[in-house]
Design goal:
The chain starts with 13 loop residues before the first strand and ends with a helix. The relative contact order is 0.16. It is of the alpha/beta class. The protein contains 13 helices and 17 strands. The protein is globular and about 75 Å long. Helix 7 (208-211) links the parallel strand 8 (192-196) and strand 9. Helix 2 packs across helix 9, helix 3 (90-105) packs parallel to helix 4 and helix 11 (342-350) packs across helix 13 (386-404). A seven-stranded mixed sheet has the order 4-10-9-8-7-5-6, sandwiched between helices. Strands 13-14-17-16 form a four-stranded antiparallel sheet, with helices on one face. The protein binds 4'-deoxy-4'-aminopyridoxal-5'-phosphate. Residues 26-27, 89-91, 119, 121-122, 167, 171, 196, 198-199, 219, 221, 362 line the site of 4'-deoxy-4'-aminopyridoxal-5'-phosphate.
Length: 405
């Protein structure tokens, strides 16, 4: 395995006297120096408001900002740059779709379909839309190993369905959903497919055209970029039918006291001053991922995930949720130490400098399905090392013995 730790300055930090072992990438990733540098370089050399000024500095800021739009479009293989616009986060992107397409398309008696593994960000906006519209929210069930139940998907999606909203990769179970098959199913019934790509884009190449997603949402901060910047991709033909949910500067053509014309897409959907430095940081993060290459990144993550999953499966007194085989397992493993509260386990690990998440992971209905109040979750990135996973497993054994004895 290639060691990329030196790219991430935070990894020299000591936590409770131990070296930081960061295993909460599903919540947010750490930032390489190149991303940190790109943000400070922007403020030091190019800071001005975008799209407005005629002066050189404004043109420089605009060029850098718009170059990232091209970069993102190429990264997710969008057919054109206009299909990509910047938001605050995955949550913001998904709410955007609910408030625009959802408001326009969903009527009383219609259906919105989600899966039982959704993050609250891809559940609550649809639930609230369904409540507002007197529509029905339907939930695709899961197989006992946590994978999507295709028979249930076929039963749930009907000619009344307007929207199918699904995560590409679950932030708890680590499973990958059959996105292009779901797109086909949705389209056969005249519905659109909205994909929550938050847990996918940093770990595998994404081709929105091959997936045939109508909308695809993700966050910069889970892909080595900064917080506060997200992306929404939408099919251009759909975007053209939508009324912007926000009005103000940047998104207009001409304004009189009586009327306003709209700017072209995508500016139409980016009202106000955007998160310019965040977008530039996201561009640096994409360049960093491309420099490593998904082949390397995936090989390293799969090796680390196999070590993590097998270590947990072989540990007595530990319950692992989701698929038990590493094939097609995302770099996220949820587990519990039987008889112990997940918070106690995470606190015990933290005392040794190991940072994992404990809780419901913003997926409370999924916790109900798993019949647990919460789980511990360890999630790796390519810059973790086999030695870190060994250390995590050794400390977990000690913590488990402490609590179980
Ligand atoms: N969906 C999934 C699957 C996620 O894992 C997350 C983040 N935990 C989100 C949506 C929300 O992302 P953000 O908080 O960046 O909006």
């Amino acid at each position: 395995m290639t060691d990329y730790r030196a790219d991430f300055p935070i990894l020299t930090t000591k936590i409770n006297g131990g070296p930081l072992i960061y295993l909460d990438h599903a919540a947010t990733s750490q930032k390489p120096q190149v991303v940190i540098d790109a943000i400070s370089r922007y403020y030091a050399t190019a800071n001005a408001n975008v799209h407005r000024g005629v002066y050189t500095l404004a043109a420089r800021a605009t060029a850098q900002y718009e170059a990232v739009r091209d970069q993102v479009a190429a990264f997710i293989q969008a057919p054109q740059r206009e299909s990509v616009f910047f938001t605050r986060s995955t949550t913001d992107s998904l709410n955007w779709v609910a408030q625009t397409y959802g408001e326009q398309a969903v009527q009383a008696g219609d259906e919105i379909v989600v899966t039982a593994m959704e993050h609250h960000s891809n559940l609550v906006p649809w639930q609230q839309l369904a409540l507002r519209k007197h529509a029905q929210l339907k939930v695709i069930g899961l197989l006992p190993n946590g994978e999507l139940d295709w028979q249930s998907a076929e039963a749930m999606v009907t000619d009344r369905t307007k929207i199918v909203a699904v995560a590409q990769v679950s932030n708890v179970l680590g499973v990958t959903n059959p996105i292009s098959a779901l797109a086909k199913l949705a389209h056969q019934h005249g519905a659109i497919l909205v994909v929550d790509g938050a847990q996918a884009v940093a770990h595998q190449p994404v081709n929105v055209q091959a997936l045939d997603a109508d909308f695809y949402a993700f966050s910069g901060h889970k892909m080595f970029g900064p917080t506060g910047v997200g992306v929404l991709y939408g099919k251009l033909a759909l975007l053209k039918t939508l009324t912007p949910p926000q009005f103000g500067g940047e998104m207009i053509g001409e304004v009189t006291w009586e009327h306003t014309t709209l700017a072209a897409i995508p500016q139409r959907f980016e009202a106000g001053t955007p998160n310019i430095s965040g977008v530039i940081g996201l561009g640096a993060a994409i360049s960093y991922i491309q420099q490593i290459g998904f082949d390397t990144l995936r090989t390293q993550e799969q090796q680390l995930t196999a070590q993590l999953l097998n270590g947990l499966l072989n540990m007595p007194g530990v319950a692992v949720y989701g698929p038990k085989s590493v094939a097609e397992h995302g770099p996220v493993v949820a587990f519990n130490v039987i008889g112990c509260h997940p918070h106690d386990i995470a606190t015990g690990l933290d005392l040794a400098g190991i940072e994992v998440r404990a809780g419901h992971h913003c997926a409370q209905p999924l916790m109900q399905w798993l019949q647990v109040p919460a789980t511990v979750r360890a999630s790796v990135a390519f810059y973790n090392t086999p030695a870190e996973i060994d250390h995590f497993l050794a400390i977990l054994r000690e913590v488990r013995e402490f609590f179980q004895s």
